[in-house]
Amino acid sequence: MELQKPRGTRDFLFEEMRKRKYVERTLKRIFELYGYQEIKTPLFEDLSLFTLKSGEGITEQIYHFQDKGGRDLALRPELTAPVARLYLNQLQKTPKPLKMYYFGSCFRYERPQAGRFRQFWQLGCELIGGKSPYAEGEVIALAAHCLEELGLEDFEIHIGNLGIIRGILDQAQVSGPVQDQIMALIDKGEVEELKKFLTNVNLEDSYKNILLELIGLKGHREVLKEVEKFVGNNSQAINALQELSDLLDILDSIGFSSYTVNLGIARGLDYYSGTVFEIYVHGLGAQKQISGGGTYNLIELFGGEKVESTGFAFGFDRVMAALDQQGAPLPLDKVVEVFVAPISREVRLKSFQIARKLREAGISTETDLAGKKFKKLMSHANNLEVSYVVLVGARDLEQGQVTVKDMESGQQELVALEDVVDFLVERIRG
Ligand code: HAM
Question: How far is the CA of 84 from the centre of ligand 1 (A)?
Fold first, then answer.
């Protein structure tokens, strides 16, 4: 029997992990520049955390199981609900706004394809207790900053506000659960299905037409003028439109104006209440959405006080795919910088000592662990792509010296044993 990994999961090998770690570090650094602090929550939670308010789309995709105590548990499909739970458990008294970020894997039982996995990673944040539109403006600026720092080009940030469509559906007296179904169809972009559904639920033609027009509206600021025509005197929609306009003012004022207003954004989770945004990289094809988020009221839905919250999560795997597709080389550190090569058996212990000193000085170092002959050792050092080899020979040692070979230039230099660490630190870090 050949052992296989489960469908929709991946193994990551060395090179890929180095790239992922670089991107992880960079994104975390930018989150911290905006005052976010990292948190970790469990990989599994009570099933009800996700079935209560996350929406049908997610509920169908949940990996759930019973433990030996008969508890219904779920592998987390996302991290906003766990963070809201954590907030309710421990952080309600912490001064706000509260800024948290996370990096962790999520699980969704989806049909795997390029960019869509059953285990995938999210790097995201939640800002609890900020006020719209300032919190949203900063969160969107943070998302853009992250991608710019990574050197990602050709990404598009699309911004909408659910209050506009919800306001119109409320006016048409469409019930909450039916609204959620409508939002799910808008989110999937299934316009024909949506039309059929709206007919089945007997939505008046005038509302139906407004809705279909609205979800097709996309463009720069001028789109707001178009929206105005549709919202009439619907106060909820007018407020949402004003919120959107205020948010765009903030983004314009900080010099970020390359957004697209998109009224067709519905998000696949039911807890969003106002501003929503998604980031696309079109070259990725069907799974082009590399990030999504917005303002939500999950804490209140879970029984806490009304506290405005905004957040978003990068689909980490899709960010990686976008960088890869763009072909921009990531600045990766060397795996091993120095190889300490004993020329003969009797100097092996000395090599161990030198390697230890180099590691203590923060230089990644390898030495011979396989008893290889000298020629093989040099070819091993070549394969490792080290910058320097320290050649440890009995005759040099008698003079209190070793030979350091610069692997790029090929030049060799005799260095006093007691100076070799400083010499290499200077060369490598200098
Ligand atoms: P989401 O849009 O469901 O939002 O997921 C965030 C991102 O995760 C997506 O934009 C996508 O890039 C990535 N993603 C989703 N499913 C998969 C998959 N099967 N394979 C690979 N990548 C995937 C949320 O989860 C919200 N919790 C985001 C949020 C935070 N909203 C407020 N705060």
Answer: 16
